[in-house]
Specification:
The complex is a heterotrimer of chains A (about 100), B (about 170) and C (about 230). In chain B, about 75% of the residues lie in helices and about 0% in strands. Chain B has helices spanning about 5-25, 30-50, 50-75, 90-115, 130-140, 140-160, 165-170, and one strand at about 120. Chain B is flat and about 60 Å long. Chain C has one domain. Chain C is about 75% helix and about 0% strand. Chain C has eight helices and two strands. Chain C has helices spanning about 5-25, 30-60, 65-70, 90-105, 110-120, 130-155, 165-195, 200-225, and strands spanning about 75, 80. The chains are: A mainly alpha (about 100), B mainly alpha (about 170), C mainly alpha (about 230). Chains in contact: A-B, B-C. Chains A and B meet through β1, α1, α2 and α3 of A and α1, α2, α3, α4 and β1 of B.
């Protein structure tokens, strides 16, 4: 029997790692990976609360989060590819001019 | 030390290790591979909570399709090791202890106030039939809206990633 | 725990990483292109594979492989067995077969591998034991596909039972292995017979023909079961 707070702590830790990664990383792909980590942490807390309150809607909502994450990563990676074609760099610090 | 706790700690250790490794690695492919490990361990956690369909979908879609997309892009752009940037020593000196203290404080507060209501193993079974009942009856509108969202994302990704000169006069 | 078939789909999805990472880590532009092509092919045909399985799922209303096989026991009119292929999933079987041939990178869909003979492929830079691992994995994948095809479409271990009780207990195993052997024979037979697709033909076949056909199969099956 695992207390619910353990699941919430794990979910919070994953979310915190995602936020820290988003802030300290310079590579755009690593930033996107941190966003995915944040979404995964949130999914875990959805499922944990669904288990505690016996509400299956929590598990159903995880699907919508996954769908949105998939759509957002598809479009985001396409944007990264087209930015890379013009700027030739993946470092966010160097993409700082509106016009080359 | 019940078996449930041992399994939770095992999967949790992989999650935590993968998340810290994602931050520590400087090459994006290593970060992507540790994120795949985190997702697989999270599927194990979902199984412990009884969400079997969610666990299967996590492996098939998240770890098996979305992360493949990430790995493709890392391969196509030949992303290299992250460049060294000039960090601030003050930020590290104040920030790391600050995060640790803040984290420990919040963990202590959560543990104090959550009570001891434990979640048994397989707490809320989520077989595909009951999830499908909910998804296609109560949540039908969000389901249809997400399918439109995916269609828009497909079109957007194709347009954004296509080569500029061929996108202009393509007749197909 | 009613997710048997999804576990197999999940493991199939994870197999794409081996090919993609092997192609990139070889540090060879031909390997990279071969690996990218192979993994794009596998990801595209995974969709048609999954959709062809959904027809079977609608008829059996269970993800558990044992339940699906048990629903295929018995016979029509005393002669024709109630296998799923005779019970409405004829087109579904052929979609599954073609998608599975593309998933396992076998002829007629093996352009990523054939490049080894022409220019390069994702396993060019591998030799000896590591190359053997790739091929063992491919054959294991073929055997898994054969097992799934017999379980889902050909009645699994159902077959005529006769003789003393000990023989009766072992005969389902014999039928299962015999059906798998027929599928592996079919794999190797097709390999010796057909030429391979060009990559653009392969991708347009998967997206423009197989996927709409799989969706149509799904719709027809769903309507037939609902009535």
């Amino acid at each position: 029997m695992v207390p619910l707070s353990y699941y919430l702590l794990l979910s919070g830790f994953l979310f915190a790692c995602g936020v820290v990664g988003f802030l300290i990383k310079r590579d755009i792909i690593s930033i996107f990976l941190s966003i995915e980590l944040m979404l995964n942490g949130v999914n875990l807390s959805f499922v944990a609360f669904a288990a505690q309150w016996h509400a299956l809607a929590g598990q159903v909502f995880v699907f919508f989060v996954m769908v949105v994450a998939a759509a957002e990563s598809a479009v985001g990676l396409a944007i990264i590819i087209s930015v890379y074609r013009t700027r030739e760099t993946l470092n966010v610090d160097q993409v700082n001019l509106l016009k080359l | 030390m019940s078996f449930h706790l041992i399994l939770f700690l095992a999967f949790g250790a992989v999650c935590v290790g993968g998340a810290v490794n994602l931050l520590a690695q400087r090459h994006p492919i290593n970060s992507a591979l540790s994120l795949i490990a985190v997702m697989a361990a999270l599927a194990g956690e979902y199984l412990l909570l009884g969400a079997e369909f969610v666990a299967a979908v996590q492996v098939i879609i998240y770890a098996g399709a979305v992360m493949v997309l990430f790995v493709f892009v890392i391969m196509l752009l030949n992303a290299g090791v992250e460049e060294e940037t000039k960090g601030s020593r003050v930020a590290v000196l104040l920030g790391v202890p600050g995060i640790l203290i803040g984290g420990v404080l919040m963990a202590w507060v959560v543990l104090q106030h959550s009570g001891t209501d434990a979640v048994p193993i397989d707490a809320l079974p989520g077989p595909p039939t009951t999830i499908a009942q909910l998804l296609f009856h109560d949540f039908l509108l969000p389901f249809e809206v997400t399918s439109v969202l995916i269609l828009i994302a497909i079109m957007g990704a194709v347009v954004l990633a296509s080569k500029p000169e061929s996108a202009a006069g393509k007749v197909d | 725990m009613n997710i048997g078939l999804l576990v197999i789909l999940g493991v199939t999805s994870m197999g794409v990483y081996g090919v993609a990472l092997a192609g990139w880590s070889s540090n060879n532009k031909y390997s990279l292109l071969g690996g990218l092509r192979a993994s794009a092919q596998m990801v595209s045909y995974e969709i048609a594979l999954g959709l062809s399985l959904v027809g079977v799922l609608i008829q059996s209303s269970s993800f558990s492989l044992r339940t699906i096989v048990e629903a295929q026991g018995g016979r029509f009119l005393g002669i024709i067995p109630r296998w799923n292929i005779f019970h409405g999933q004829f087109i579904g079987f052929f979609i599954y077969l073609m998608a599975a041939y593309a998933e396992t990178n076998r002829i007629p869909f093996d352009l990523p591998e054939a490049e080894t003979e022409l220019v390069a492929g994702y396993h060019t830079e591998y030799s000896a034991m590591k190359f053997a691992m790739f091929f063992m994995a491919e054959y294991a994948n073929m055997i898994t596909v054969a097992c799934l095809a017999t379980i889902l479409f050909f009645g699994g271990w159902n077959g005529p039972l006769f003789g003393p009780p000990l023989v009766r207990a072992l005969l389902p195993l014999v039928w299962f292995v015999a059906k798998i052997f027929c599928f592996l024979f079919l794999y190797i037979w097709v390999r010796g017979t057909l030429p391979r697709f060009r990559y653009d033909q392969l991708m347009s076949f998967g997206w423009k023909f197989l996927l709409p056909l799989a969706i149509a199969n799904l719709v027809v099956t769903a309507v037939a079961v609902a009535w």
